[in-house]
Structures are given as C-alpha cells and as structure tokens.
Amino acid sequence: MRAAVYCGPRDVQIKDVPSPTIEDPHDVIVRTIAASMCGSDLYLYGGEVEQMVAPGRTTLGHEITAEVMDVGKEVSRFSPGDRVSFPYSVSCGLCLSCRVGQTAHCETTGNAIYGFGVAFGDLGGSQAEYVRVPLADNHLEHVPEGISDEAAVFLSCNLPAAVIAVDAAQIQATDTVAVIGSGPTGLLALQLARQRTQAEVLAFDRVPSRLAKAAAFGAKAVNVDSDPIDDVVAEATDGRGVDKVVEFAGRGDAFNLAVSITRPGGTISGGGVYLEREHPVSLFDMFFKNLQIRLNGFANAKVGQWRAMQAIERGVIDPTTVLTHRVSLDEFPQAASQFAEREDGFLKMVIRP
Ligand SMILES: [Zn+2]
Ligand SMILES: [Zn+2]
C-alpha cells in the first residue's frame, strides 16, 4: 500500500510499504476514507522528537475516517463495510488508567498512538491507504450516519481535545474568555467557548487568516505580534485579567502568556502540547494569583469522543468550518509543508488516499 513515511526533518515521502495484516485476533484492518494532519504531528514532522521515530519506516497520522475491511476472530462489534473512526491513542478500557478516564495513559497498550513512532507503540499512521487497529472492540467507534466523512476526521483528536479543554475551563455565562492559538483545534474550542458566555471572547494568534476566522466566529482577534496585549486584555476586563483561558498554541511561551493574562483565581485550561522539560515559568505569579491550572494536552480523546459526536450530530458545532484544503496522498507532502509553515489561508486539510 502507499503511505506517508517520515524520512527526516520536514521530509515526508509517499512510499510503497507493506500493507497491514491481522496480527492478533482483536485486530481490525481499516481502509482510510479520509485522514488529516494534526498540529501535534508537527513536532514529529519538524524532527524535534526524532529519537521517537524510525526515519524511513515510521508512517504518520492519527486522525481518520475509515471503512472496516477485515476483522480478527475475537472482534465482535465490527464487520467489513462499517464506517469508523478511532481516537488517536489505543486504549483497553479495562486497566486502572482507562477506568479513571486517563485512556491516553492506557497501561495495557503503554501510551500507544497511531503514527507517532517507536516511542508510542510503533503503530502505522492514518496518512496511508490502510491501518491496523489493535484492540478494536475496546476503542474503535462507529461513525453515526449523520456525520460526514470529513467531519468524522475531527473525532480522532481535534474535537474531543477541544471539548475536553473547554469543559475543564468551566466557563460561566459572564466569563471573559481568552483562547490562545487560533489553529484548527483552537478555533473549535473558540466556537464551543463562544456558546458558553455572553461576555467577550478574545482569540490570540499571529496568522492573519486565522485571526479573521476567529473574528468570524465571534471573537475579538488579538495579534500577538502587533497588538498591545496588556492593553487589550485590560480594556476587555476592567483591568482584572480574563476569567478563563483555553490554551491551544502549545509551548512554554504560550503558557506564560496565559499566566500573565488570567485574573486572580482564574482558570487556565491547557490543551496545547508542551515538550519543554524545563521552561522559565513564574511560580510566584501562579501562586500569588491563585491560578487554577488544568492541563489536558495529552488528551483522553476516547473519553471526549462520544461528546464530540453528540456535538456534531446535534448541530452544536460543525468542525468542517475549519477545513481549508482537500488533498490526495500524493499532494500531501506539499500540503504538510504549507501546514507546518502556517501559511496564511492554510488551516486544516483532509487527505483522501
Ligand atoms: Zn492530534
Ligand atoms: Zn487501558
């Protein structure tokens, strides 16, 4: 089959690789109908975590809408032809971590993530024609009929992550909210947050088209490179700082921005990825402001997936509003580069192998 293979920093190539087969009676083999590239893939793509991957062999991608092709002998919930989507990580539902909702930390699979290299289970990715799904009965989900192929791609990661982060922020109807990072997931979180408060929602980013989209979703757009952030926040909050921050940019500087703009007693709900082992953060500021910190960036997508499905089915959110590009597998390496560059106008792609 053909798949996107990591060959080095910013070098993804479409190659012929062995097609996956049933290796365990609990496996399912799916055919990719639609896939995408997540912001978290950019850490792999850029070579920042090259020790986690096998260049020339690791295939990428953890977002998918797929059709079941083959099922192992022990699989009972799925049959060939079923339309499905998986949460980005493989979970058993039975270990202690799964039972307390930490499905991304499943003890049975050892944090296995599709298309995330040898450090996370060495599983094939979704930017490929076919994918092997281990423990299918335990974590694979049917896609309801009312959800399109393109919308279902968001069920693997982006939308559950947005739902979880916005829930954790516990936004009240009078809360001023800041969403840091207006990428695909940030814009989904923004739309969910917008529905929960009558007060102002500020959206932070530096890419003009992303800020324009945020404004179209009802936020006050703040360009972190050119707008006076302190003044904008002070004006929106009578000088107090925002009540709730939903952080989806990732990296330490974005976290520090969250700390600086949150009011005393406010909440920072982090959904972004932080890979810095050490980063200067003011413990004093967090202490002195009595900040409530809730990090769910290593999102338990399995737990958020059902609510994400409900949100789409009931018209709470249409995730395809952040789709900007539709590409074939052959066009993917070029599109990946545009996504990595945060090219103006490029937000989210759907890949159809
Ligand atoms: Zn993701
Ligand atoms: Zn488990």
Summarize the structure in words.
This protein is an alpha/beta fold. The chain folds into 2 domains: 2-157 and 300-352, Medium-chain alcohol dehydrogenases, catalytic domain (Quinone Oxidoreductase, Chain A, domain 1); 159-295, NAD(P)-binding Rossmann-like Domain (Rossmann fold, 3-Layer(aba) Sandwich). Helix content is 27%, strand content 22%. It is built from 12 helices and 15 strands. It has helices at 41-45, 96-99, 136-139, 149-152, 158-169, 184-194, 208-216, 229-236, 252-261, 283-288, 301-313, 332-340; strands spanning 2-8, 11-16, 28-35, 64-71, 83-85, 130-133, 141-142, 177-180, 201-205, 220-223, 242-247, 262-270, 292-295, 325-328, 349-352. The strands form 4 sheets. A 6-stranded parallel sheet has the order 10-9-8-11-12-13, sandwiched between helices. Strands 6-3-4-5-7 form a 5-stranded antiparallel sheet. The chain is globular and about 60 Å long. The termini are close together. The model has no long low-confidence stretch (mean pLDDT 97). The site of one zinc ion has 9 residues, from helix 2.
